[in-house]
Specification:
Number of domains: 2
Shape: elongated
CATH class of the largest domain: Alpha Beta
Radius of gyration: 28 Å
CATH topology of the largest domain: BirA Bifunctional Protein, domain 2
Bound molecules: adenosine monophosphate
Helix content: 25-40%
CATH architecture of the largest domain: 2-Layer Sandwich
Number of strands: 16
Largest sheet: 8 strands, mixed
Strand content: 15-25%
Length: about 425
């Protein structure tokens, strides 16, 4: 066994898995761009306060999962457990409210949560996070859900499930919790698990999405918040559903969906995929109209979603969906003799300058051994150079798939390859 291993809950993404990763990330960027989202980079760590306020004190993330540390200057910093709070911090700090609204941004990168690792749940995972800040129109919610939909369908997912709920706003949610939900849960407190009794004290809404088996009958029969929304929230939700219906995006209403972050208002949604077992959420999001203000900005609506890349890759594998292969260098130089090797190095350099990937065999192995390396490399053409051919100003070029081989004048080689591989590639 190796002396050192990647820390618990983290993993290496090895070359064999890169076709999946590059495909998923490339697709995410393409879809985001189609909707007018721009990339943003934000720091991997922020002042701890950004997440404590932005994610919310009653949440699992803030209470149990943050990687918080003091730097050498005595500041409390936290590795980002999600992107939204940091992106909103950047929106406020850089005065983005003077730009045309909404400001639509996306980020891709690692996030960190101290969770109990299991299949599909890690301490470092990678998110694609899409945020639309500055617009209250339900069309903005629809757009965010559409980005999610387009991403998963472009990847070829079958049996996707979109779950949707509205959790109201600071005007209608507190009365629902206080006057409807809490009295109901109290009336059936004997049937709740110990953990849910604690949640009932601290964050009653979270009882709704409990996974505790014994609490299920209680929450299944709980009065739905959707029936207690104020008229504005109710209209907003109806309009979002109108767009989803109009474009035939399937979804399921789930009155128990509340999601883990404090800052959500109105729309919340989650996307699940088949084949993942317990950790089957491949993405989720919602509206966060209070967040900009909580982080010190002017009242500004916002809506966003995040997808977990590791889980998407796991789901693709579980569903038997293969990624497109990644391009390998297409030309491999094989050489025999000292001058031939030097010529191969120089010619490969010229070939790459014309935009074609090229490899040169290392060492001085036999032609046969080099040819084996060439086939394993995935190249299409092998250029064979020997000192005698070189003296004639020629090289041999072999097309690996057909086995066809011909002599090419050395001075024409770069143009010859460019013509076949770039200008007029065969299908
Ligand atoms: P959240 O910010 O919790 O809504 O997470 C957004 C998405 O990130 C989820 O839908 C998952 O796909 C993914 N995700 C969240 N937590 C983890 C984790 N611990 N390990 C792997 N993926 C995760």
């Amino acid at each position: 066994m190796a002396r050192y291993q990647a820390p618990r809950g983290t993993q290496d993404v090895l070359p064999d898995d890169q076709p999946y990763w590059q495909w998923v990330l490339g697709t995410a960027r393409d879809v985001a761009a189609k909707y007018g989202f721009w990339p943003i980079e934000v720091p991997v760590f922020e002042e701890t306060e950004v997440f404590v306020r932005g994610v919310g004190t009653g949440t699992d993330i803030v209470e149990k999962e943050m990687y918080t540390f003091e730097d050498r200057g005595g500041r409390s910093l936290t590795l980002r457990p999600e992107f939204t709070a940091g992106i909103v911090r950047a929106y406020i700090e850089h005065g983005m409210r003077v730009r045309p609204q909404p400001v639509k941004l996306y980020a891709i990168g690692p996030v960190f949560r101290y969770e109990a690792p299991q299949a599909g749940r890690y301490r470092q995972h990678t998110q694609f996070s899409c945020e639309s800040i500055g617009e209250a129109d339900p069309l903005a919610d629809f757009e965010i859900m559409s980005v999610a939909w387009d991403l998963y369908t472009a990847l070829g997912f079958r049996e996707l499930q979109f779950q949707l709920n509205s959790i109201g706003c600071p005007r209608c949610r507190p009365p629902y919790i206080r006057d409807v939900l809490v009295p109901y849960l109290h009336s059936r407190r004997d049937e709740l698990s110990k953990l849910d009794l604690e949640r009932l004290q601290k964050n009653p809404l979270r009882v709704l999405d409990t996974k505790e088996p014994e609490s299920q009958p209680v929450v299944n029969e709980a009065p739905s918040i959707v029936e207690h929304l104020c008229s504005e929230c109710s209209e907003h939700f109806a309009q979002l559903r109108f767009y989803l219906d109009m474009l035939e995006r399937p979804y399921e209403l789930n009155p128990r969906l509340v999601r883990g972050l404090d800052y959500y208002t109105r729309t919340v949604f989650e996307v699940t995929a088949q084949g993942l077992g317990a950790q089957n959420a491949v993405g989720g999001g919602g509206r966060y109209d209070g967040l900009v203000e909580v982080l010190g900005g002017a009242p500004t609506p916002g809506v966003g979603f995040a997808a977990g890349i590791e889980r998407i890759v796991l789901a693709l594998k579980a569903q038997g969906i293969a990624p497109p292969s990644m391009p390998a260098p297409r030309v491999f130089f094989v050489h025999r003799g000292r001058l031939a090797k030097d010529a191969a190095v120089a010619l490969a350099d010229q070939v790459r300058r014309r935009g074609v990937g090229a490899l040169v065999a290392f060492g001085e192995r036999s032609i046969k051994a080099q040819m084996r390396q060439a086939s394993k490399s995935g190249a299409e053409y092998v250029v064979i150079i020997g000192d005698e051919e070189l003296a004639r100003g020629e090289v041999q070029v072999k097309h690996l798939e057909t086995g066809h081989q011909e002599a090419v004048v050395q001075a024409n080689l770069v143009a010859w390859l460019h013509e076949r591989l770039v200008a007029h590639p065969s299908p």
